[in-house]
Amino acid sequence: MIASAFTYRNAARIVQIVVLSSVEVDIHENGRLDLPNSLLRRLDFAVATVHSAFGLGREKQTERLLRAMDNPCLAVLAHPTGRLIGEREGLDIDFERVLMAARERSALIEVNGQPDRLDTDEWHYKLAKEIGVRLALSTDAHGTADLDFMRYAVDQAWRGWLEPADIIKTRNLVDLKTALRRP
């Protein structure tokens, strides 16, 4: 768990950087998250995604994601289709139903910038915007070099007609932390 803050000073301004504690957890076939809520509540937020059982039917996959979003510890549904370009097709899900559930539950949907993934298309983001779902841009970084993938997440957001107001990470720290805590 990481929780720290530091201040960078230069001649022009003082910039405070705050690191939030988080983890990405697996969503089991039954919709349960891989870690207990007692641990997840100690973090600033939790991200969840599917890492297995990609072949479930449309209804079961959709229900799996809906049940995961029922967990109040889940703040962000990451790479919701699970697609890996050239390796694995995305999950067969009712994406509109998932987006409606995200809106109802105040869960965020990830705009993933990992170039081998880019697992959701511009029309997914446009629909999310239209129905009022909040989105979080992400690099899906597994190392510091992957942080450059943010440019692809931004490109995906632009393709979906998203604006800064649609993206949670454009908010100030207080608003961001509030949005990451579900009611």
Mean pLDDT: 89
Order of helices and strands: EEEHEHEHEHEHH
For the record, the CATH architecture stands as Alpha-Beta Barrel
* C-alpha end-to-end distance: 23 Å
CATH class: Alpha Beta
By helix and strand content, what is the structural category? Answer: alpha/beta
Could you name the CATH homologous superfamily?
Metal-dependent hydrolases
- The unreliable regions are 1-7
The strand line-up of the biggest sheet is: 3-4-5-6-7
Helix content class: 25-40%
Q: What can be said about the biggest beta sheet? A: 5 strands, parallel
Q: Overview of this structure, please?
A:
By secondary structure, this protein is of the alpha/beta class. It has a single domain, classed as Alpha-Beta Barrel (TIM Barrel). Helix content is about 30%, strand content about 20%. It has helices spanning about 35-40, 60-70, 95-105, 120-130, 150-160, 175-180, and strands at about 5-10, 15-20, 20-25, 45-50, 75, 110, 135-140. The strands form two sheets. The protein has a five-stranded parallel β-sheet. Strands 1-2 form a two-stranded antiparallel ribbon. Helix 3 crosses helix 4. The longest helix has 13 residues, at about 60-70. The radius of gyration is 16 Å and the shape is globular.
